[in-house]
Design a protein that fits this description.
385 residues, alpha/beta, Rossmann fold, Dehydroquinate synthase-like, alpha domain, six-stranded parallel β-sheet, two-stranded antiparallel sheet, 48% helix
Length: 385
């Protein structure tokens, strides 16, 4: 196992009727900006619950944050917040809203061009406003980590950044807020969580037994509960397990002391930025091809994954690996998330465009061994057709 440091300062409030807990965390004299997306929180009652909880606070709103939050939209929020003297931010919505608020928190106090937050991958952040989250759409894990992905629409780029200064101070996770989600968003959340875990688990062995068992347990839970969430949309316990899986899948715990990949995510980001595909759908497309092309580097963990997660014990090594990858693909398909580029009306002519973007963004040495080049990505995407 590798050396590691784990620090996660985010306090979690989990369960029914816990939105009112925001008043325990936000100072009474704070000037709060509530940030949200397209308005679903007004339809499902979350907006009213937050407003009621914050009655008596100085509270203004900024809505319209996109599913892939754009730099341009977020800067409008930053300008509004500066003009109104805001000193506390509250993200209400899914992971995209949380990601956007992380950027806003850093940009509010940034000395220089806020674009540098993205071009430095967050290293240039020196200070940030405090903020919290009320989560309504699980999947990204942004509610309990210090990472974010922001879209620069002007150059068709999704750019990740992270910094310990943009951990949420707290996050409220009430599974009842997810009961009204459309099936497609539920499915996306499950797939997103699954691939987050795989990026940290399916690399190469370093004898991180605790991390492996945690990851495998989370994957098994997703396999059990994901289809149930579609079949039993009113089942609170199913939603609670999926919500907690999403948080644990990317809060730093299972990735501590083990190698991490993230090549699938970087390729997926380019597909989203170029063609507008949902983030989770790009992951479902890319991951099976990424595993197939990189079998040699991932052989030991693929065999472990097949045995422990899918119960694959028969056949030679090659057959067991092929079966594990195919089981993964079929799981995504069972969640009604297609896993081929052609399902999204994309053909081979998209491949050189994606490769050009990877090169333009410096994504030329990806993966746990930094050997996933654009040339290798070409083979991956050809497998994804």
């Amino acid at each position: 196992m590798k050396n590691f440091v784990v620090h996660n300062p985010t306090r979690i409030y989990f369960g029914k009727d816990c939105i009112k807990a925001v008043t325990k965390e936000i100072p009474k004299n704070a000037n709060v900006l509530m940030v949200y997306g397209g308005g679903s929180i007004k339809r499902n009652g979350v907006y009213d619950q937050v407003k009621q909880a914050l009655e008596g606070y100085r509270l203004t709103e900024f809505g319209g944050v996109e599913p892939n939050p754009s730099f341009e939209t977020l800067m409008q929020g930053v300008e509004q917040a500066r003009a109104e003297g805001v000193d506390y931010l509250l993200a209400v919505g899914g992971g995209s809203v949380a990601d956007g608020v992380k950027f806003m928190a850093a940009a509010m106090l940034y000395q220089g061009d806020p674009v540098e937050i993205l071009t430095s991958f967050g290293k240039s952040i020196k200070q940030a406003l405090p903020f919290g989250c009320v989560l309504t759409l699980p999947g990204t894990g942004s509610e309990m980590n210090s990472g974010s992905v922001i879209t620069r629409s002007s150059i068709k780029a999704k750019l990740p950044f992270s910094n310990s200064l943009v951990f949420p101070q707290f996050s409220v996770l009430d599974p009842t807020t997810t009961l009204s989600l459309p099936p497609a968003q539920v499915a996306n959340g499950v797939v997103d969580t699954y691939v987050h875990i795989m990026e940290q688990y399916l690399t190469y062995p370093v004898d991180g037994k605790v991390q492996d068992r945690f990851a495998e347990g989370l994957l098994l839970t997703l396999i059990e509960e994901g289809p149930r969430a579609l079949a039993e949309p009113d089942n609170y316990d199913v939603r609670a397990n999926l919500m907690w899986c999403a948080t644990l899948g990317l809060n730093g715990l299972i990735g501590a002391g083990v190698p991490q990949d993230w090549a699938t995510h970087m390729v997926g980001h380019e597909l989203t930025a170029l063609y507008g595909l949902d983030h989770a759908k790009t992951l479902a497309i890319v991951l099976p091809g990424m595993l197939r092309v990189r079998v040699r580097d991932k052989r030991e963990k693929l065999l472990q994954y097949g045995e422990r997660v899918w119960g694959i014990n028969s056949g030679d090594e090659s057959q067991r690996i092929d079966a594990a990858i195919e089981k993964t693909r079929r799981f995504f398909e069972s969640m009604q998330v297609p896993t081929r580029l052609k399902a999204y009306r994309l053909a081979a002519d998209c491949i050189p465009v994606v490769l050009e973007q990877l090169r333009a963004h410096g994504m030329v040495a990806l993966g746990e061994h930094s050997d996933v080049t654009p040339e290798l990505v070409q083979r991956v995407l050809e497998d994804c057709l």
